Input
Amino acid sequence: MMSTRSARPLFDPLIVRRALRDSLLKLSPRHQLRNPVMFTVYLGSALTTLLFVQALFRTGDESPGFILAISAWLWFTVLFANFAEAMAEGRGKAQADTLRKSRQDVIARRLAANKLYEMVSSSELGVGDIVVVKAGELIPLDGEVIEGVASVDESAITGESAPVIREGGGDRSAVTGGTRVLSDFLIVRCTARPGESFLDRMISMVEGAKRQKTPNEIALDILLAAMTIVFLLACATLVSFSQYSVLSAGRGTPITLTVIVALLVCLIPTTIGGLLSAIGIAGMDRMIQANVIATSGRAVEAAGDVDVLLLDKTGTITLGNRQAVEFVPADGVDVARLADAAQLSSLADETPEGRSIVVLAKQKYGLRGRDVEGLGAHFISFSARTRMSGVDLEGRQIRKGAVDAMESYVRERGHEFPRSLRDRVDQISKSGGTPLVVVDDGQALGVIYLKDIVKGGIRERFAELRQMGIKTVMITGDNPLTAAAIAAEAGVDDFLAEATPEAKLSMIREYQAGGRLVAMTGDGTNDSPALAQADVAVAMNSGTQAAKEAGNMVDLDSNPTKLIEIVEIGKQLLMTRGALTTFSIANDVSKYFAIIPAAFASTYPELGRLNLMGLSSGILSAVIFNALIIVVLIPLALRGVKYQAVGAATLLRNNLIVYGLGGLLVPFVGIKLIDLILVGLQLV
Amino acid sequence: MNTYAGIEIVVYFAVLLAMVKPLGWYMARVYRGRPCGLDAVLAPVERLLYRLSGVNPDGEMSWQKYAVAMLIFNLLGIVAVYGLQRLQGSLPLNPQELGTVAPDLAFNTAVSFASNTNWQAYSGESTLSHLTQMLGLTVQNFLSAATGMAVLVALIRGLSRTSTETIGNFWVDMTRSTLYILMPLSLVMAIVLASQGVVQSFGPAAEATLLDPTTDADGQAVLTQRIPMGPAASQVAIKQLGTNGGGFFGVNSAHPLENPTPLSNFLQLLAILLIPAALCYTFGEMVGDVRQGWALLATMLIIFVPLVGLGLWAESAGNPRLADLGIDATATLQQSGGNMEGKEVRFGVGTSVLWAAATTAASNGSVNSMHDSFTPLGGLVPMWLMQLGEVIFGGVGSGLYGLLIFALVAVFIAGLMVGRTPEYLGKKIEAYEMKMAALVILIPPIVVLAGTALAVSVDAGRAAIANPGPHGFSEILYALSSAGNNNGSAFGGLGANSIFYNSLLGVAMFVSRYWLIIPVLAIAGSLARKRQTPVSAGTLPTHTPLFVVLLAGIVVLVGALTFLPALALGPIVEHLQLTSMNS
Output
């Protein structure tokens, strides 16, 4: 489930106010230099401003009013792009502010050598220091619990208000600095230096402070820069071309610098150039909305490219626990007797499986739970050695357990293990279930059929993934027979049975050697090698510190199904860039038709026939459209293009029609409308 | 245009497409070193060549080594052709006793032939000796074509190999291109052309008595005409096959001794597009998926065919001003009709336009009509075909590697649109490839636009113009488009044999040939190192009509957006003036 904590509206007034201020601050040349396309607009704005000043005092190259209008709209173009970026950052910044509140300096009890505390500020702590945190206190730094069990409120990080249990040893030993111990106490060994904790990383991530350009963004930047150069040249050479034309035609005046700059800004891909960084930040932000903290934008991008998903069976594909679905009696045994024995043996069994047996017996055969303690029952709990559990009651010895353990148990007591029962056991195994044999005083009564329950809707999800070209692999500790049955039921493409950490690792390497990108989730320390090897590795926040270090994303909800969402966010990020690039380039066609007839009207009035839109102020209208389209597209840049789970070819066709063809046609309408308004307001 | 022209065009495309697969398949075998049928005769020659030159045919090269070998080899070619021209007066096979060629013209011609441009600022029959033509130009016709093919093959290897550092051996690729592909085809072609009456002799010019004596400018009676002769058939064969286009005679294939019959015309026209078209199939075969090759050929055709249509329409409609004067320019059985200025009556509008489009689509440049005399829109077609970067067929090898670079860009944009790091044929396209691809796509427009701007700004540039107004601008733009895209086609009209143009165009040809090859080879090297991503449903297919449309769209859009302002001041405004009532 997605947390609803950070579902802010896209245009939160608070964020908008801050973004408006930031878009002015971002006018510093140093900031603008990072984006070659927008820097060109920036220079153009500055140049036209100078031309305006010149026109005020001396003969300008156009009328001062016209230059002022062009110059103003060019500045707006820069500001709108800044605003888009600031809006994208704003959401993260608001969140970072909340996070910062948790990152207070606290006084920690550091354990000194003589078993005494010393009180130190959390900023003085170092890796390896051991601290004691009592109920009601903030945990000073990230660390591993080495002693104690406590409930911890992690809502500052995860947004989830229900407290979680943290205890020493095992897979729930990691604690995060800035979370609060609610009950009991914990002894924690610090694993991070102050300033480098998970919370710090999270803050810098949501703020976008450490944002580096991703490889794909760099490649796109190169393409956009190349296009800017081409257009720069096409516009610059127009000066000589038009001088020649004037000379040769013997009339008119050469194209003015103002018009050249206007044409240039309209042609260079300002729409994508202005929104590019907003798209990247918004992509990271969407991850954060999904409660996933990525360590880099690169990881988000890689998520879109994933070819293979390794999914843990338990929790992702099936509900966490197996449930009893049927009692299968041996020949000649009444099913009610089997159910009764099964229920008796499970009454004290607090595992989910045990409880489901009691419930099934009650539902199907009306057997109610009994107060067996009063009957003097003695419960035998499950042990790895005997591999069975049960109850001694009124001289009866009821046991239940795995088939091979029970078979030898029956034989030891001089009974036969019925062949027909053996067949039923095999049947259950083959269909993906787990058989538990029930024995009453040495006689095998029958089998309890425990079944893995595949999550609802997961099959459809996998079908979608297949359409996206992503292969799903189920990882399970089950035997191959059971695994195959569940794999078939859930609709995964492949499975790895009896999985060991080594087997997982070598499987990932194998896929990677075949040129595939692999994504996986993990929580335990023994997952860390595989997490480190995978291209996209999502560690569960509930997992160990080692797992979190090895992964390149942390899922705060600790929901293994999240991987699918992560892939979609990654794809959306790339798609939004692609769609707006296409739109931006396709826009140029109409701008030529708006500008060229006007630019050369004095020399070649015949070019007026190219004025298809019948504009009276083509140049200004085109410049205004070019600026406004950035604002119009901010919501799309922030939300991202909608992802549909269809094949690549269909997706490309749809997007080409919407953003390619749309990009070709929309500006014709838009520029004409702006022109009509300008005329209507008698501004031109 | 009449029915016969229509039939010729249909037959032309049918024959061309029918030859794509067999020739493409044959070339793929040649480049893979598999038996191809001619080995029995040629393999010993090939081995002997390697032994004589000390080349180890199994020695693979990194892209840098490959590029250095290519550059050195081509520079030597330029020096040799330059030297031959400068020394031809004291060398044999010079029956006309032609003098040494001026340094600027010699430089221009040397670069022109080495770079597969074959821009001719000279008139062959009055400037170059037979030796220069044969040993200089004809040899370069072969080698420049082979260079283009070698670079293409290196790029294909980059796409089809995985995790290696090497992209083949330049010397082997050159040798095999020349020996197994260009020479046999040229031999057949030359013999057929000679049978049609294309001259092939070592003799001096023939002296013919005029049936209708005339007088010269000084009023002297002229009774005889000198008809230049020479080894034309052999040069014409490779000029067409190797997309060179440099004619033996000044007027190129409009000359009756260079292109005497309808059959010779058809065969030369076929030869212009033959290898560039067939290489698409070779590409598909070598990357193991012929559909990829057909898709690229389809891309070329969906741009080429409509432009031929536009040219045919413009030329058939003729000049509206003449129609206003009551001149009947409709095509009938008695007259060719349409705009016949600058066209051979024997060819008419249909063949002339098809030739003009083919010769500029492929970077050939040979002509059988004068493009300067086309209507504005008719002239825009060949000019714009060059400005598209010579990737619609383009030069042998160079056209396809150019289109492949566009395909990388198309794949990049398309990949983004489907939410996946782009890949072409399983190779991921990343920042490095985009950087190099941007160079390849950027350089020709820069050369063309900057060169044109320079030429229209200085007196030396403007002085060469034959017609004032937009048409004069078109003449300069055309010349730069031709040199800047290594085509070599001339609009005519522009007096380009001056120090200014010889130098400017010479530099333009040099830059746009070799500065493109280096990034192309760099991409080849980088792709060869990469692993191949297996195909899945998430992979964007690059053989579908959708991709063809996208790729064609990008080529057209880049060409249109870059050159629309310039074209607006040249052919477009000229067209509008021609069709406006009031001017």
Q: What stands out?
A: The longest strand of chain B covers residues 206-215. Chain B touches chain A through 68 residues (CB under 8 Å).
